[in-house]
Amino acid sequence: MSQPDPGALHGELFDGVTAAALPVTVRLSATGELSIRSTGGERRVALAECRISPPLGSLPRRIGLPDGASIETRDLELLAAWEGWWGRARGARLVHRLETRWRYVVAAAAVLVLASVGAYVWGIPLAARAIAFGLPASANAVIGEQAQPTIERLLGMRPSTLPAERQAALSEQFGRLAGEMAAPGFRYDLQFRSAPGLGPNAIALPSGTILLTDELVALAERDEELLAVLAHEVTHVEQRHGVRSVLQNSGVAFLIGLVLGDLTSATSLGASLPTVFAQTGYSRDFEREADRGAADFCRARGWGTAPMRSILEKLAAAHPGSDGASWISSHPDIGERIAALGD
Amino acid sequence: MLLAPGRGEEPSVIGYACSGCGRTWPENYCPACHTTIDRNQLPPPLATPTPIIQAAAGVGALPPRELAADWPWPSRTTRATPGSGAGVPFTFTGNASEYFRIWIVNVALTVLTLGVYAAWAKVNKRRYFWGHTQLQGRGFEYTGDPVAILKGNLILGAGAIGYYFASSAQPLLGLAALGAISLVYPWLFCKAMRFNAHHTRHRHIRFGFDGTVGESYAVNLGLLLLVPLTLGAIWPYLQYRRKRYQLEHLRYGTARFRFNGGSGPFYGAFFGAVGIMGIGVALATVAGVALPGAHARWVGLGIGYLVGAVAFVVYAPTRVLNAVLEHTRLEGVASLRGSLRVSELLALELVNLLAIVGTLGLAVPWASVRRAQYRWSRVEATFEGPVERVTAAAAPDPGTFGDVAAEHLEIDIAL
């Protein structure tokens, strides 16, 4: 456009000193000068000295005059034409153009969906992995170290009632397992607990301490089964699942927070549900990875995955109802885990 | 002052006819069609003055002419008859289709820039919602700077990460951090109020907040320390004092806000919410016992969560808001009234929640616009005096840190 639209822009002048509004008519001359006319007279201001509010949908826009007054107008097209002629505020207009044309909106929606899914499936886990392995082993250990007494209290753990020789024999076997599987940096320590409330289970702390319940020892028929479970736990430590889990959970909460924004009231409830689902999804991935580590150990020892599968079957029998809605649970369905182990 | 709109310079024509709907308005703006009326197309001056001016001036001989049925404008004379004005409702003129486009671009750019654009998205959202919240056809303006919000985001993000790792390693550190935050919170509260008020404008006049940091500490920290001593009974009173602190020191230009409510409604809302929660807990327990299997736990939890949400997120704030607005006035200008209904808001929020879950989040902008439309249609201002008389106050910019606090601690004037 070589010269401004000769039309007149209608608006209201607010002087910034009182709240009164004065209807005005504004025209733009070829030299870039605004002529503001009202019942009180006429005034001339250079357009270059005015600050115009960025466009946003159909909101009225303000032309801020240099002395602090402003003109509010709803003649958005004319103002945009003037801006175009004067060559101002390209950045905001670019975003505005994205917001006003539906094809860009659809493109934005597609980009959003792809980026979010990509972040959840690859971006966040890869970044968490890189950070967790980038940190030294001791940093990984620090997370959760102080938490051990709290965890034990929460799970109702008491001192083990296993005979001392049994504990020593298992500890010695565990020592060999740790020597074979583990890279230097973690201090592995097998501890025995009695946990009637928790039942047969084993817990790995990121520092390398592994808690084995008497109930699991009683459930296993052979030591190979116990070692398979311990290999699963050691994999949790080796693969730094503690730190990765913390990072991924925060990452996904951050992502969902970005998307849903700062909602208040009832709809913010809707935000916490997908976060929980996403986090349990990550938890199940870690469990599958630990299962693979245990399977590799069993095959390396020449047993095949039979010990792992049999202990899983026994656990399934010992915890009836644990194969419930697997999309909320932190572990994959036991049938799926057994099938995934293969031979 | 340039182009002074003095009383003696009113144009001889009093009504402007809108070409779109044909109705007549006292200023060259038609709020029904949301367009400016071209002054060049005005009808010739009326031969007789219209009865509105005569009635207000005390001469009521002529029968009132039919002007626009929903004539919301106050009288243009200096002395408006007190109490004769009907409540002028606020209106929210945004629409879901337009906001959806703005929202989706906001979110896409935010995710693509890993959150850096979030500051601009926040400013856009505020400008949109405040700009479309209108009283007498003029909206509220948000003048905050996105760069300030971005700085705040970065500082708080770094702080949150540090806190998270520190408290994972050493839980006591986490507690210490919480303690430090509660010591700083009253100061942040005061700064945030000042910032939010300064950056809100209506008719190009800024709001302002003159509360002192000392009083903020007395209310936010002093009363907070009494909460455990009184077994929580003082909590509604704390909310009341906090609201009073926010409103009594708020001003629009040089006009002060006044809040003359008591703490009764706060107690009523609080105990009502507790009662509702009690019902929810009872229902959840029954569900947990009566239903078989592991699903019972989840159903019970869900019921409890929903009922708790209803009680504290819908019921209590609505009761409190209505009561607060009832007792809030802008001295010499207007009084406010709120008539939100819990039942209507509940239905609205339930539909919103279902829509958001059903569309995997795409209905969020629609839900926000719906909520704003309902809420603002139920707030009205009754004018006692001409708002044009309000003058701006000379107040310095409160600096940028206040918005960090306002942003992340959700401190708002909450009107």
Question: Could you list some keywords that capture this structure?
Answer:
heterodimer, A: 343 residues, alpha+beta, 7-stranded antiparallel beta sheet, 15% strand, rod-shaped, B: 415 residues, disordered C terminus
Instruction: State which percent range the strand residues of chain B make up.
Output: 5-15%
How far the N terminus sits from the C terminus of chain B, by CA atoms, comes to: 31 Å
- Low-confidence blocks of residues of chain A: 263-267
Helix content of chain A: 40-55%
Order of helices and strands of chain B: EEEEHEEHHEEHHEEHHEEHHEEHHEH
Distance between the termini of chain A: 75 Å
Task: Describe the structure concisely.
The complex is a heterodimer of chains A (about 350) and B (about 425). Chain A is α+β, with helices and mostly antiparallel strands. Chain A has helices spanning about 75-85, 90-100, 100-135, 135-140, 150-155, 165-180, 215-220, 225-240, 240-260, 265-300, 305-320, 335-340, and strands at about 10-15, 20-30, 35-40, 40-45, 50, 60-65, 70-75, 160, 190-195, 200-205, 210-215.
